[in-house]
Amino acid sequence: MTQLEHQDDNSEASGLKKDAQKAGARVGLTSDEIIINGGRPLMGRIEVRGAKNLAPKAMVAALLGKTPSVLRNVPNVSDIRVVAGLLALHGVLVTRGEEPGEWRFDPSNVEIAHHADIDAHAGSSRIPILFCGPLLHRLGEAFIPDLGGCRIGDRPIDFHLDALRKFGAVVEKLPSGISLTAPNGLHGANIELPYPSVGATEQVLLTSVLAKGQTELRNAAIEPEITDLICILQKMGAIITVEPNRVIFIEGVEELRGYDHRALFDRNEAASWASAALATKGDVFVGGARQEEMMTFLNVFRKVGGDFDIQDDGIRFFHPGGELKPVTIETDVHPGFMTDWQQPLVVALTQAEGVSTIHETVYENRFGFTDALNKMGANIEVFRDGLHDENRRVKRREFEQAAVISGPTPLKGAEIEVPDLRGGFSYLIAGLTAEGQTKVTNLGIISRGYENFIEKLRLLGADFVFEG
Ligand code: EPZ
């Protein structure tokens, strides 16, 4: 029996939430809506916990161990509950540990699950695709339902399936998903990714560690979340060497044991609250944030006119006064400017004195959220085929978009619907920045990646009503 309903107890936050709920009920809001009264700077301290883009992958890695694993600092976000449900469905005993954010996984009795049940659990997550390798190692077969995830592009999985075939998997596409078998087991492979895909790199790592022989992965992703997953696998007994120039070398081993690991902090959530502090002329201490994984963001934050204080237990992000300045940004793979950072930052750039340009080079459709910002008074032009700019460091990529943001433009409250995770958080920032009231609907998407964001808004002094 899983203890999924066990919620992290945060009495202050839950008290704050109750106040907001009473106010929300009075104005007849549904639990998926919030009304924000803008114009007040965010001030105070919040804590970010483990990375939404690491913790679910670490949970999948527990399937590979012969003995139980412990994952700490796990955020209370819906992707975690989706993966916990899928693990339990496959016979893993999933329980909550003593400390907040501690999850335990006992993979002693992994078993095949029914396709219909898997489908029901998959939800809007992309993580199920990472079950392939571990289930093929444990059971010799796997069924993966159609994937969810933010609508910021096609989100294909061709790199994943090509890699699995190279390991010896037989892949069959079914109307409801993908069925895989490994008739002769899984063996090492030489794989070169067409693009340093985070998910495909995770797929190769989770499959190669128990495959017979050696695997060489070229053009790998090296995001901090990938490094943290490699640390977890190394704790389990894997032999993984990260070489120069995005090459990862894995020597397959016979057996892996469980791990005990504290998940890396969520740098995307930290960057989102930092952008909110900038846009609202506020001062927010983000507990748990670390400089090393945020260096590129910190440079841009400073160039726009923000300032920050690095402490041992987090980073203080604040607007030091004066005007915000325009910047030209190019999203890229690590250690470049993370694509997940651009959407929240766009709102602050609408308040900068001048013209900013963002070249989005990772996803082909990640500027849809700007329509609603223009409805609020922003002046953002999107170039679907990108913008040629001769003094750019890298040449324009195959599919790329650009957004040109002219500011400063005062924002006026409006009713807007959350389109995707990071765009949704940028709408909260827009409501906090705008004059008047903004009603943000379809909030559920935001809870996929931002733990207890309503309580955090309340802790930071935001003025809003929420029924929740
Ligand atoms: C991960 O997505 C993150 N999600 C994303 O964060 C993040 O933006 C992305 O990595 C890039 O860093 C999770 O970790 C759950 P990719 P992922 O494979 O793994 C193309 C957020 O807001 N591609 O690195 O799905 C793909 O279409 C989310 O937290 C293929 O063409 O991203 C994209 O253009 C959004 N074929 C590019 O590669 C494939 O088989 C990068 O995708 C796989 C990917």
Verbal overview:
- The chain is α+β, with helices and mostly antiparallel strands and 468 residues long.
- The chain has 2 domains: 3-48 and 265-465, Enolpyruvate transferase domain (UDP-n-acetylglucosamine1-carboxyvinyl-transferase, Chain); 55-262, Enolpyruvate transferase domain (UDP-n-acetylglucosamine1-carboxyvinyl-transferase, Chain, Alpha-beta prism).
- The chain has helices spanning 11-26, 55-61, 78-89, 115-122, 132-139, 158-166, 198-208, 224-236, 267-279, 295-304, 339-349, 370-375, 421-433, 453-459; strands at residues 33-37, 43-47, 69-72, 93-96, 103-106, 141-145, 170-174, 177-181, 190-192, 214-218, 239-243, 247-251, 260-262, 283-287, 307-311, 314-318, 328-330, 354-360, 380-383, 401-407, 415-417, 437-441, 463-466.
- The strands form 6 sheets. Strands 21-22-1-23 form a 4-stranded mixed beta sheet. It has a 4-stranded mixed beta sheet with strand order 2-14-16-15.
- Helix 1 (11-26) packs across helix 14 (453-459) and helix 7 (198-208) runs parallel beside helix 8 (224-236).
- 52% of the residues are buried.
- The model is unreliable at 1-10 (pLDDT under 50).
- The structure holds ligand EPZ.
- Residues 53, 126, 150, 153-160, 195, 197-200, 221, 268, 339-340, 362-363, 421-422, 449 line the site of ligand EPZ.
